[in-house]
Each structure stands twice: as C-alpha cells, then as structure tokens.
C-alpha cells in the first residue's frame, strides 16, 4: 500500500468501527457474554490451526535473528491459548457495567438527574509482539460494549490475523457486528500515524510497548491516550517501624521480580532506624546480588555488609527505573524529606511507606502525588487484578480520566440522564 | 517582551504554580474556606477601587470601537462584584471533596484497596473579555485544592490584574501561597501557546470563549483540554405523547433564550403526531418570530400557520447551531429514525425525547450518544447548577474524563490507596 492507500484504508476501518460501536452500545449483556464464551470455545477448538499460522511468524522471527526471549513472546502455545480462553470466560462471568444508572436525585426544579455508564465508543490499541494481546483487547472491548481497532507488531502479523478471524467468527455467532473488532491488516508504519489522528472515529488510544513507542504516540496523537510511561517506585522505611516487616516487604518490593514497572527502584530510610535497618536489608540484597547505589550516609552504614555491591549514587540514579537487580538507597531525616524526595524524583507510579506512625501514614497517603500510595505493603501489588478490577487494560501514569491500574471502567464514560414530567426552565 | 522572554516568563509561572499546588493539596478545608470568605470580603470592600481599574479597560474598549454589548461584558458593576462575592461564599459553604476515601475493600491477598479524591494539580484557564471569570476560576481552584494560571482577554487586563491582586491577598490572609492563583500579566499572544504546551507544569487546560479560540487550543495543546464546542441540541416529539406538554417544553427549549448552547436548534416530530403537533408549535414560533427551516413534510403541515416564516431546510441546516430565533424541523417515522438522525447530525451535547412510551424513553436514554439525554423536559436544563453540582467549571463535549456539565470533581482525580499489614506478593 502507498501512503494514500493506507490513509484511505485506515479511514475505512474507522468508519466501520464507529458504525459497529453504535450496535455494540445497545447490545445486551447476554449477547456480549455469548460472544465471549464462543471466543473461548473457538480458541480451544483451533489450537492446531493457530499453531500453523503462528509457526510462520516464529520461522520469520528466527530467520531474522530475533533473540530467543523475543521469539518466545511470539509463541501461541496451548497454554497461552488456554489462558486466553479462560480470560474470556472470566470476563463473561463479570457483572455488566453498561447501563448502570447512578446518583439519580431530584433537583429543586423537579427534574431528576443522574449518570449512566456507557461505552466510550471506539478505542485503538497499538501493541508489540505478544499476539495474545489481540484476544485480551478484543475481549475487553466486547465486554465493555465498545468497538476497537487493533494494530499489533509486524512480527506477529500472521498469528494476529488468525486470532482476529476467530474473534470475528465469535461476534457473528452471537449476532454482533464483526467490525466491532478489526485488526489493521497492513504492517505499514503509516497506519499507526493515521490511527492516532482520527478524532472523528477513534475516542481513545491505548499503546502497549516500549517507552519509545509510547512517547511517540503521546506526542503525535490527536485523541486522548491512556499511557503508561515509567515506574520509578519508592519504598520508604519510616521511624518508628517494625523492622522485620520492613525487611520482608522491601525485599519483596525489589527482588520478587526485577522487570515489572511496580518493582521498587529506590529505597529511602529514616535516619532514626537506618543503623539498624540498612545492614539487615543490605545483607539480603548482597545475598541476591542486588547492586546498591547509595548516598554517602547509606554507603557508610552498609560498608560492613559482607559481599555487598556498593556504588556511590549520582543525581541521575534518583530518577532511574532500573528494571534490574539494582536499587538506589538514601537516608532521609524523616517523613517530610521522604515525601519531598518522592514528589521530586518519582515517576508518580507507586510508593509505599512502612511505618507504625499513624500521622506519618496519613500524611504519606495524602501528600504523595502518585497513582498508588501504600502503607505497610509491597509496591508489587500495584496491579489491576490485585486491586480487584477483574481485568486490566493498562496502567495509566496520567491524572486525567483514569489513574493507575485501569479496568473496564476506563473504557466507559458517564453521560447525564435527566427525567422530567414537563418541567421548563424559567 | 520578546518570544524568548515570554517563554521564560511562562515557564516561571508554571514552576511557581507546581510548587504552590503541592501546598494547596495538603491545605485543610478550613484554610481554603477562610481564603474564599476573605476574597468575598475584599471584593465588597474594594468596589470603588476596582471601578477605577475597570474604567481604564472600559475607556480603551470604547476608544477601540468595541460594540456596546462587548463593552457591557467588561463591566465590573457593584452587582457583578456582589454576585462574585456570593459565589465565593457559596463555595466556602459546600462540602469538602478532597481527601474522600471511597470503596475501600479487602482483596484476597489481605491488602485493602480504595480510591482517594485528590486535586488534579495545576490547571490553566484561557478566557475572553468578562473579568468576573477571574474570580470564578480562582475560587473554584482554591476550593478544589489546585493551583491555576489564568490568562484573560487583553481588553480586561487592568480589571483582571486588580482582581488577581485581591485573590492573592485573600490567599496570604489564609496562610496559603499566593502563587496558587497567578494571572498571566502580559497580553502577548505567545503566552497562550506556551501555557498549553507545558505538560511538566500544567495538568489540564480549560478554554472559555468562541469556537475559534477553543478549536485552536484543542489542536495545539500538549496537555488534556476540557473543551466545549458547539451545542446542536434536539427535541424529539414522539408518538404517543402529551401534546400540551410537548408544546410547552419545545417552546421553552427553543425560545426561553436563544444564545445558550443548550437551546434546542432542531425539532424532530414523529409522523403519527405531526399533523396535530406541528400547527400548534408553529403558531407559537410564528408569534415569537422564530424562522422554521423545514423538510418537505413539515413544510406542508405548517403551510396554513398564519405569519409563519417557513424556509426549506438544506442538508447543512441539520448540523447547524443557530444561537438565534431559527429552528430546523423534520418529520420522522418514529424513535428509530429520531435516534439515527440525532446520532448523525448532533454535536452530542443535549437531546430530549417527549413521550408517553416507556420503551421509547429507555431506548432514547440508552442509545442517544450525547452528554445529556432527557425525557419530558427542556434541553435548557443542561447546566451545572440545575444538575446540582453547585458550581460549573464548564461543559465538556468530550467523553474522556468529564462529560457534559463539569463541577468541582472535574478538577480532581482519584488515586489508589492500599493499606497493608506486611503483605508481600508471591
């Protein structure tokens, strides 16, 4: 396709999505859940056929010299497909959110005013490599009564096409429009530029991928973006606190997994407990090979820990999201300095205070300007499933519309409903 | 100022606002309400002094040949100032919204998860002519615990400066940072371009003014915009309906005031009641000099109405926001055609169905994709005060974040709060 054709093609997808969105908005809960269960069945029935399409992507990826972990992420194994099928069934079992009428109250004029939850309309999702995101996005879109346009990575194009065909078959079986879930069939990069610049058709864009992709999309989009940038999360060990709890939780926050965005990248310790606490957590980190980038005070207190990999921290370290066995460590005077440090250096994702002091806990919760604020627990809990949202569309690092882990509600909007009996305005 | 100086100046305002926002976020309800009551007092105490500054704007406007209504909008009369003072006092009496913790529930891991309402941070407001918007924006900002940067029209610069001085005095009296409300002191247009492109300092932009201003800002902003474009509102008279109610409500929706965005610009009538209803509403419109732009069927049914100003409607008429004594009129087969017509031609602001049919009412509420949907009442009710919001920041024609009339909540955000007792993720 040349650029003109890509533009025309993307516009067609947009128009078709908008038409389908109107039908999805009035679909009954039973119909949407029927489509989700049909999709689960089709995924299980087509494990072998999907393996054939998937193999073409895997061969191409191997031939192109992609790394083994990258190739692994492309794989549609029976296990991956079963997880997708179960996800669809779980969504089908969740309560319906569309049409809920809330807060209906009579006003002095006599009219009754409330708000109704409705689908947002059309969302575009742009994602890299993992083809199972096609099913995740499609199923969230169906449950929430939206239409979506999906643009996956070129490495997974054959797998994505095969999955999208199953989604459209499931929609047809339930009597829903197949344009409710459309996959961009071209790998032309121009299609992304078009997709994010059609406010007449697309209501919101959700990118999933590397920071470079998300920054580019945020910069160029002409529609709202639910975006997730970095997670420079902090754990602050307050004075007074339960040091056993602090060692256990800080360890978990840093080392349970190094790659997630909700892992703690920076440890702040109140001066009053630093001499007791730092050697203990330092020994844990030393045993796990976690490099500690320390301010001078922490460096001194950790000096005697056997096998500790200690490095003096630079100013840049306080901003860093390592996603690796590295943590920055700073001794602070107390809760005031901790809050000020976090609000300055954090990426406003997730921060935790470990404390016995009620006033400090309340101040931390109120004053730390991050999408998740926690007391006496691990930052690793910042997650849609752990928060009970049932499904997670993404994690937003913005304050507008949705903040932090975003569930199905993030794909909906509230419109005003006014019920009258002939009232007029005077 | 040259462009470089304007950029530097605007950045300084941004940094100062961000610093003040952190202090405002932790201010107590009592402190914020004290500032609002101080502002009300200062406005009343300075009626004479404000008249002097205001006179300079009025003279300049008259000399520049501005129309009498435009000059009138600039005027800070004692009545206008008293209304502003009462607005501040009303806000001071409203319940506090910041810090509310909602939905705290225990999850299977043991953590308790809820959401806390917090200020959004810094908002920028860009507005034209009326200087009283300075007080409205400042008081909403104080109540909601935000900081704001205000950019008024150049015609009102002296009045705005004088009002901003009083706002800062009120903030100081209450012990709050005066940078919590800053007025852009230069009338250089470049400052607007800067203000809407500082995502590091400004969280949301709220423009108030003509469609041209709002379109420009939406196009160029690098931060979210709560914007209000046009209001092409519809009233649909269904079959069956109470014709007396329909005449009264349709009359109110169109003629109670012609200029507001929530006035009905288009009338749809079900074929089954058209022959009875149209001559009656036609006579009302004829008596008030309202021009009727009709489809062929309506034209015929209205032909016998004495003094009616009838014009055949063009395709463009169905899209039009007249803000004038003009209405477009179309006969439709029934509720299906009415919903389809509205979803195609409407600006998605406010639409009403007048009906006795419960199923039609429910379908209209659910399927019409507008920010306000109404049954048996006048579209003129689409308003923050009529909806019981206490104060209105603006009306949003978007679906993202806030939709329709936006109250103080539109200037807030929900962050996640997690309370634990040492839980770790496994």
TrEMBL record, chains A, B:
Gene3D superfamilies: Aldehyde Dehydrogenase, Chain A, domain 1, Aldehyde Dehydrogenase, Chain A, domain 2. Signal peptide: none annotated. GO terms for molecular function: glutamate-5-semialdehyde dehydrogenase activity. The keyword NADP applies. Its EC number is 1.2.1.41. It is an enzyme of class 1 (oxidoreductase). Residues 16-286, 318-383 form the Aldehyde dehydrogenase domain. It is found in: Cytoplasm. Pfam families: Aldedh. It catalyses: L-glutamate 5-semialdehyde + phosphate + NADP(+) = L-glutamyl 5-phosphate + NADPH + H(+). It comes from the Bacteria. Pathway: Amino-acid biosynthesis; L-proline biosynthesis; L-glutamate 5-semialdehyde from L-glutamate: step 2/2. Keywords: Amino-acid biosynthesis, Cytoplasm, NADP, Oxidoreductase, Proline biosynthesis. Belongs to the gamma-glutamyl phosphate reductase family. Catalyzes the NADPH-dependent reduction of L-glutamate 5-phosphate into L-glutamate 5-semialdehyde and phosphate. The product spontaneously undergoes cyclization to form 1-pyrroline-5-carboxylate. This is Gamma-glutamyl phosphate reductase. It comes from Curvibacter cyanobacteriorum.
